[in-house]
Amino acid sequence: MSPRRFGVFAVGLLLCACGAVFHPTLQRDPTELRVDPGKDGFYWARDNEWSEESWAKIKPSTDLRWVKCYPGGFQCGRLLVPLDYNKPDEDSAAIALVRLPASVPTNSSEYLGPILFNPGGPGGSGVDFVLAVGVRFVSVVGSQFDIVGFDPRGVSRSTPRVSFYKTRIERELWAMSDVEELNHSSITVAGSWARNKITGALAVERDRNVLAHINTDHTARDMLRITEAHGREKLQYWGFSYGTVLGSTFAAMFPDKVHRLVIDGVVDVSDDYYTTKWTTNLRDTDNVLQWFFKDCHKAGPENCAFYEPSVKAMNIKLNDLYSSIIRSPVPAQTSGSYGLVDYARLRFTIFRAFYKPFAIWPMLATGLQDLVQGNGTALFNIQDLPRFQCSCDPLEHAFDNEGDVSTAIACNDGDSIPSDLEEAREHYREVLRVSEWGSIWAGIRMRCGGWSTDIPKTQFRGPIVGNTNHPLLLIGNTADPVTPLWAAHKVSSGFPGSVVLSQDSAGHSSISSPSVCTALAVREYFVNGTLPKAGTYCPIVGTPFVPNLDKSTIVPEVDSGSQTQIPFRQVMEGDGELLKALKELAREFRLGTTPLHV
């Protein structure tokens, strides 16, 4: 460690001294406080107020007692499950859940049970996801369902929570941040490889006999326990990105326990994720950039700031911008932040924008054009995060969602990989052959190069096939940056009767763009179990730059398997609230928020 970095480290520890003490109980299970039963049969925190710290007041139980919590009618609970399903009578884990309850009583014939949601990651918080967009999902599937989000084991509010670091300041100063650009960057392949050796060693050193049980197999079993705690025998589920790994794994482990299962933005599970190859994800990524240019060109200069008279001209302008930024990074300072727009930040910002066309592309176009003119503020703001602040309250950050668990899940799930530097360099070259964006993506697999080989891989990891109780619905976009449509068809081949619905859009998973066609197909599947016809393609409404574009859309008549052209104005009249919810869902889209970006 350089003298300067050591000085920063020492000052950081001093500044955060009040909150720097390691709290093993908080890491394990902060449940010392009690809740009181309310008159209506639910449970209230004693002060009848709710904050993130209130999770510590919910004592986990096997019968899943619900507590009124966040504003908007949400209920929260903590379900007690075995830490190790091979030794179910020993240590326990507590799974944090939130739900929007159905509008009908559970004993009503109209009640259709819970739908579990997973936003991806691995390591994404289902609690955060449902709190943010759960109301939108009610508009999609209907109010007869409970909308249920959960933090997978090791994640955020679920305990024991995975952490490789004793303090927040230790994690911050080691800068275990998002995977970075490995080309024209201060972070090289060799540097990333070496840092991952240390991170892997820290993980083992700080393990409390927990890491071996942080994997997709055990989370799939947790989902079955959640389903059973709702009084149901079979799972209803909608999983995105890594959530498709979890969903397809569940379907392979428990094919007779599938009632409705949608996987959206599908990962090549068997031959890429569980083998720790991470090479097929970028098959369509280069096409997403061209889609951005085409949408910008169609929108015109009045709607897209980066407009040029041709797509080719926009490609040239972006490459010229790369060269300029490599030569001379642009300083950026806002009212609350500051930093440099260098090549790494520019590339990473563009790559992350690929996920969210309707939410980010207009801002990206403005940021790129401003950068051409020497102003980096708008582009810097797209990826800006709140600055780290110390805290003297031990509960304030007790349930933060950290990136440590993403590494733990991915590296536990996948095959052990060679740990030598030359192998890391070869993987880097291999991913670059798939896409130019491999310079960002290659860093993901490198994290597992430092992972301990002493953690056993005896859990279920395939084959990902199964003759399920009810066929699966798989959804893929024609231009998804990290889960190509090809993978949806590949996974579907292992599940007889399953159907792939293709959404004709760029972005990561179907909810990154509004499609009434896709939404109605999903609703029909959950409510009636009816699948769209194989080969169905669903268009989206509008474009990222002209979201209110008046255009026709295709709504599948899913009961007959045919497709019918319906003018957009008719869809608006019949499904105005649905379309509004879909547009809001696309704008609020927040998948892939963990460091692995899946």
Q: What ranges have pLDDT less than 50 throughout 5 or more consecutive residues? A: 1-15, 17-47, 550-573, 592-596
Instruction: Tell me the fraction of residues in β-strands, as a range.
Output: 5-15%
The whole-number mean of residue pLDDT values reads 87
* Number of DSSP-assigned strands: 16
Biggest sheet: strands, sense, closure?
Answer: 10 strands, mixed
Report helical residue fraction.
Answer: 25-40%
**Radius of gyration, Cα only, in angstroms?**
24 Å
Count every helix, treating DSSP H or I runs of 4 or more residues as helices. Answer: 19
Separation of the first and last Cα atoms: 32 Å
Signal peptide: 1-27
Family: Belongs to the peptidase S33 family.
Pfam family, one: Abhydrolase_1
InterPro entries: AB_hydrolase_1 (IPR000073), AB_hydrolase_fold (IPR029058), Pept_S33_TAP-like_C (IPR013595), Serine_prot/Carboxylest_S33 (IPR051601)
